[in-house]
Amino acid sequence: MTTRSRVLGAFGLILLAAFILLPFVQVVQLSVQSTLGTPEAPLGTYTMMNYRNIFASDALVSSLVNSVTYVTLNVALTLLVALPAAYGISRYHIPGRRLFFITLLAFRVTPPVVLSLPVFILFSKLNLINTPVGIALVHCVFNVPIAIWILESFISAVPREYDESAKLDGYSTSRFFIKFLIPAIAPGIGVTMFFCFVFSWVEVVFARTLTVTDGKPITMAISNLFGFQTDVGLVMAMTVFSLLPGLVMIYFVRHHIARGFVVRG
To answer: Which of 75, 73, 111, 69 is nearest to 205 (CA)?
Structure first.
């Protein structure tokens, strides 16, 4: 590779990084500015007041707690269902397995709005409206397919002899899962948790449909901040706050994400 090619490549990467990061830089800048103006912080003043106002608002704090609650429930339920399913698909011969995986992904990309009305009717009868549990359950419908896809590729990378030696040593299936399989595919579980987290954390359709009065997550809290006189600084502070968990998670799973999308015949 010539010097000119290296320079052009570096310049292209800088332009791409600037294109991606420039909006985020503006968000961070506005989050530490007074956009409405107060006696303590005149308009345009750099201040941490917006971040303090997040924790001074019961509605915003409640939305953060709600989001953490239903994301945690969703991730736990998804792993509980997807891990045994992925193990069964990996270890036992299933005709048309490739087609099954494609079908899983096809269902995963179904627009949530298509299911919003039937889900609302069903959950209203089950008294799951305005609860984080309701949102967690409906998110599992979309997260379980992608979780099975990711976990199956990681489990298939573990030799079958691993299972056989554990059974010969007298380990039950549940003990084998806990003591051997889960540690062996820990990166895959981390990648699965990341994708489940991202979908649940930023999803809006079901959050709006299933939280009429209470139980609103962070996405709805940010939406509700817009009004006749919007405190843009507070909106940007909430936006930055909502991005931090995702950035932390992607840092830890960045080396393993691509391995979760291997299509096996």
So the answer is: 111
Task: Spell out, as residue ranges, where the chain has pLDDT lower than 50.
Answer: 263-265
Q: Helices 232-253 and 49-56, interaxial angle, to 10°?
A: 90
CA gap 52, 251 in Å, rounded: 27
Give the global pTM: 0.79
- Two structure tokens written together for 188: 């895959």
**Pair of tokens at residue 206:** 């079901």
Nearest CA among 75, 64, 73, 90 for reference residue 218: 64
- Distance, in Å, from the CA atom of 163 to the CA atom of 181, rounded to the nearest integer, reads 8
Helix H segments across the chain?
Answer: 3-31, 49-56, 58-91, 97-108, 112-125, 132-156, 160-168, 173-176, 182-184, 186-202, 205-210, 218-224, 232-253
Contacts of 42 (CB under 8 A, 6+ apart): 34
Dihedral Cα 243, 151, 97, 259, nearest 10 deg: 70
Residue 80: the pLDDT is: 92
The number of CA neighbours under 13 Å toward the Cβ of 147 is: 27
Angstrom CA distances, 65 to 68, 132, 199, 221, 242, stand at: 5, 10, 17, 12, 12
Q: Which residue has the tokens 């991005």?
A: 243
Task: Go through the domains of the chain in sequence order and give each one's CATH number.
Answer: 57-261 (1.10.3720.10)
Q: How many CA atoms lie within 13 A of 43 on its CB side?
A: 3
Residue at token pair 């579980």: 189
Confidence (pLDDT) at 79: 92
